[in-house]
Amino acid sequence: MNDNYAVDGETRVEIYRRMALLKANDERSRKVIKTGRLMMPYYSYRGQECIPAALAVNLTDRDYLCTIYRGIHDMLAKGLPLKELWAEIAGRIDGSCKGKGGPMHLTSPDKGIMVTTGIVGSSMPIANGLALAAQLSGDGRVAVATFGDGASNIGAFHEALNMASVWKLPAIFLCQNNQYGEHTTYEKATSALRIADRAIAYNMPGVRVDGNDPLAVHAVTLEAIERARNGGGPTLIEAMTFRFHGHIYGDDDAYMDPARKKAAMEADPVPIYRASLIAGGFATEESLSRIETEIEAALDEAVEYALASPMPGEEELTTDVYAEGAAA
Amino acid sequence: MNDAIVDTAINTHRITILQAINAALADALADDERVFVLGEDVGDAEGGGIVGVTAGLSKRFGDDRVRSTPISEQAIIGASIGAAIAGWKPVAEIMLMNFVTVAMDMIVNHAAKLRYMSGGKTSVPMVIRTMTGAGASTGGQHADYLEGWFAHTAGLKVVAPSTPEDAYGLLRSAIDDPDPVIFIENLISYGNKGPAPVSGHRVPLGKARVAVEGKDITIIAYSAMADRALQAAKILSQAGISAEIIDLRTISPWDQETVFASVAKTGRALVVHEAVKPFGPGAEVAATLSSEFFGRLKAPVERIGAPFTPVPFAKSLEDAFIPSPARIANAAQKLVEQGKL
């Protein structure tokens, strides 16, 4: 772990707290689905925890986030309350979206979590609009769009980055390059050697960073956020990582190279960062264990809260289609 | 177009549909700081719109609030959605209706659904203005009426005016509306003149207008076809047939109350649109009327639309493609005669 970063101990531990929350939440999600208590399409983000955890400590609730179906880690890192999350993915009335959105469409505007899309590439054009709102208001907010490597091959990526650059929007395009677009490898689907290189075409800074090094991600995202806040326009960040599991929970991930997967899991960034905090004197085994215990307790509470919450009544079926209720 | 021209136009009491839309945008921009206009070539440096609908607006309100965009329909709609959920009121122009195809994901998967999918936590108060219509020899990719796609999408409203007063009043209402509205302008009739709207006047969404009263048959139309239905009514009156013409104005949600009241009176209905007939909005209206008035109709509800073809280029074919006043009148006359049997 590179230790030349000017990041204070408190922030380092806070990044870990969020990483540990994301890891524990993923493990709990798979466990609860496996036991049959919850049925939902689940896109595991395990292995990608460093990126949103390190990003989010640089953002405030007022900053905007547009994320994707594999984005629960992004939202939790940005502060989505666990109970809101769990009630929503359980399809309950107490969920962030009254159970109408589900795991692919979580929304929590109080935390700046504005859009979660199930369409590859669609986080970026909408993040531009949020950034435009910030620019027109002059309120100093930034908008972050997260997406995967596969999304850099869809037209929306190119339209959005071009427009963001032309208008110097306070936007951060954060690609979590987990090496797979659904089942297809990066090498097979993407012409660019590095997604960060695509920034050159849009005349914006493009940075590749080790997405499994939280302090490196922290530094790179902080620079991009400050540039955006100061009127310097958008940045494309490519954070290199690896998705430990298949595209969707339940697939056999036969398309993933077992050796690559094994190597990635052996280099699990969460325990590595944990050990570095203790070795660096930023935390103790006891202090981190305490954090982890608190997370498990919060998860226990959130899962029980969610499963005890009622499902939405049938009267909810036709409300929220239009502002005043169902049309016609 | 500057202030003076708009005001003069209104004072002369007859302006074009294009001027009415320009005035509605200008008044909305002046009344509400959250309103802004974006689209390809909408700024004055780029001509104030491909046919001048937004002329003068960027000079008056600045390039930030009337901003020309790259030719990037997904990005235009995406930027509008993002700004709308952050509290702004964007009025996006998709230059021609066929270009919405490039932005369908943004419109259908996002603009239409974000309110519902967020359980009401976000709303998307935006307008998409778009022009279309056969008759300008533009061929297969510049003239389609695609309103049926949007009327079939929960979460969207669809509006298509046919007069300057309605164009002004409906656009003001669309901009005020808390939900996404598709606002369809007919390219061919931009120059049509009519009584000038009163500044600030709103025409409510979802309310049809009885353009001509009649007793023998109800003809339901919108956009340019409302004009053609009026021409058909004149032909019919020469044949002694009294047609009631309803300009639907809003396609979704459509005004069942006004249409039902008319059909209850006439007992006959003909729905006319320029969109191709199969699976068009006319089918929805006809099915609803057939169900509501089963046993009380003097003739089956009939529909007229363009044939199930792309819009052709050759003038002879293009003329045959667009429902004509004669065709509308003939169909109406047959229904009336059928009902007398």
From TrEMBL, chain A:
Dehydrogenase E1 component domain ranges (all copies): 17-312
GO biological-process terms attached to the record: pyruvate decarboxylation to acetyl-CoA
Xref: InterPro entries: DH_E1, PDH_E1_Alpha_Subunit, THDP-binding
Pfam families: E1_dh (PF00676)
GO molecular function: pyruvate dehydrogenase (acetyl-transferring) activity
Alphabetically ordered keywords of this record: Oxidoreductase, Pyruvate, Thiamine pyrophosphate
Cofactor(s) named in the record: thiamine diphosphate
Name this polypeptide is given: Pyruvate dehydrogenase E1 component alpha subunit
Organism expressing this protein natively: Sphingobium wenxiniae (strain DSM 21828 / CGMCC 1.7748 / JZ-1)
TrEMBL record, chain B:
Residue ranges annotated for the Transketolase-like pyrimidine-binding domain, each copy included: 15-192
Pfam families to which the protein is assigned, alphabetical: Transket_pyr, Transketolase_C
Keyword Signal in annotation: no
Keyword Oxidoreductase assigned: yes
CDD domains named among the record's database cross-references: TPP_PYR_E1-PDHc-beta_like (cd07036)
Annotated keywords: Oxidoreductase, Pyruvate, Thiamine pyrophosphate
Cofactor(s) annotated in UniProt: thiamine diphosphate
A GO molecular function held by the record: oxidoreductase activity
Stored InterPro entries: THDP-binding, Transketo_C/PFOR_II, Transketolase-like_Pyr-bd, Transketolase_C
Signal peptide: none
SUPFAM superfamilies attached to this UniProt entry: Thiamin diphosphate-binding fold (THDP-binding), TK C-terminal domain-like
NCBIfam families for the chain: PRK09212.1
Designated name of the protein: Pyruvate dehydrogenase E1 component beta subunit
Species of origin: Sphingobium wenxiniae (strain DSM 21828 / CGMCC 1.7748 / JZ-1)
Lineage, highest ranks first: Bacteria, Pseudomonadati, Pseudomonadota, Alphaproteobacteria, Sphingomonadales
